[in-house]
Fold this sequence. Notes:
By secondary structure, the chain is of the alpha+beta class. It is built from 16 helices and 15 strands. The protein has helices spanning 17-24, 31-44, 74-81, 103-109, 132-137, 154-157, 184-201, 203-206, 265-272, 342-363, 400-408, 413-425, 429-437, 452-469, 474-482, 491-495, and strands at residues 49-55, 62-67, 114-121, 124-131, 166-172, 214-217, 220-221, 236-237, 241-245, 248-256, 282-287, 290-296, 315-321, 382-387, 390-395. It binds adenosine-5'-triphosphate and magnesium ion (MG). Magnesium ion is lined by residues 37, 40-41, 98, 103-104.
Amino acid sequence: MSTTGLRAGRRRVPPRASAMIEALRGLGYTSGTALADIIDNSISAGAGVVDVTFGWAGQDSWVSVLDDGVGMDDAELESAMRLGDKNPIHDRETTDLGRFGLGLKTASFSQCRRLTVSSWKNAEESVLRWDLDLLAAGDDGGWDLLESAAPGSETRVNVERSTETGTLVVWEILDRLVPKSSTEQDFLELIDRVERHLAMVFHRYLDGSGQDLLISINGKRIAPWDPFLASHPATWTSPPVSIETAYGVIRLQGHVLPHKDKLRAKELEQAAGPDGWTAQQGFYVYRNQRLLLAGSWLGLGKGRSWTKEESFRLARIRLDIPNSADADWKIDIRKSTARPPVAIRERIARLAEDIRDRARKVFAHRGKPLRRTSGDEVGQAWLAEHFLGGIRYRVQREHPAVKAVLEDAGDLSAQVVAMLRVLEETIPVQRIWLDTAEATETPRTGFADQPSEEVSGVLAVMYRNLVLRKGMSPSAAKRQLALTEPFNLHLDLVERLPDLVPEYGDSPSC
Length: 510
Ligand SMILES: Nc1ncnc2c1ncn2[C@@H]1O[C@H](COP(=O)(O)OP(=O)(O)OP(=O)(O)O)[C@@H](O)[C@H]1O
Ligand SMILES: [Mg+2]
């Protein structure tokens, strides 16, 4: 077969439009990632305001994105509607969020069967539309782009324009976004999910620290979600690190979020993020301030890739890459994956290891200082004993409360030691682990939330023993108790202990 105008020995075999687009629908976008792709275009077009509208009308529901960016003239709009309108290997402006020349189409088709785009600039307005149902019905397999809003959709497309330039993207026939059995409640829940996703993906635009951007959904402004709780005084932040590479500078900064005891219930829930604490740990990869990946260990790790674990859930690392690094980082069309190139994996992993280690300590509450400002060690009741096969926990025999009993146990001493061993060998480690991991129930220690009489009662027994039986001076006994767990957390009660006279055989109450 020969095609007119084609050199001999060649055949032109363009893809069949309807089949091709149906296939592209399965790229794996969610409604949130698809809308983010549309908003990327608005940001690249310099928009300051993006209004997203979700209109519920059962099977006739629609979604639109209106921006005040630079807009497109007729030729530019036609080009924008073409699949693969730009070559991914060409350099882009440093602020451009695009790469493949596909997002507008692939993101839209993943959610709807009709995409209408209206754009205006230089006092001219153009409207073009892809309609998958009409493409499928056509028998020549061609790529027929339609030149106006679909009959009945005019009011959705010809909305009031309050800016000189701008673009409106309208999705209709939402077969993926609103499946047949969907209810209005499902639609509202979807809006909530999308809002959380956009608040996360564009938080560095929405918080005013970069290009100013205001995104609203059905008139409600989206507030940014900061994964790093940067303004919280208990958040630990590492110094920023820059890595020079052949394709630009990579920037990293580690964050260890506060232990849950340091957060109010609302803060704790907010900071968890759309997918919850454990899922949201790891690297946050940004490309031109736009979040690509929200929590991933990027396949790093020694030997075996790190997996997401409860104990590292407070670790979140910001990683910035420029769009010149797209190919090396294997950015995909959906802008939801990224893989660090081999040359810098080791360096990134080392930084991550340090952040993970710190995060684990804070999670296990070991971030709490066990030294007082004076530099004196605090006597702990439990010690972690590391050995070749792992770790075990031992009651510290030198703790004053334990020591006192062991010294005075007499005939019972073997039984007391046996009792301690039984307790040590039966610590409900798994149980404590689970309770600690679940955000709602924090196992309480150190007499937390208990009446001060209860603490004073136990404190008084120990104090009496130190002064009246061991002959310690009251001030020395108080000093020791102030440096002994858990009384180091109740210094006011230690200070209020009455001065006793050290006298053997006497036992006044205190
Ligand atoms: N809202 C908009 N305002 C102005 N121009 C736009 C808008 N949306 C799309 N365009 C133009 O259409 C082109 C194609 O957009 P599309 O999202 O399909 O690809 P891309 O953004 O170039 O790359 P990617 O596939 O990575 O998103 C853009 O490069 C841009 O020039
Ligand atoms: Mg795009």
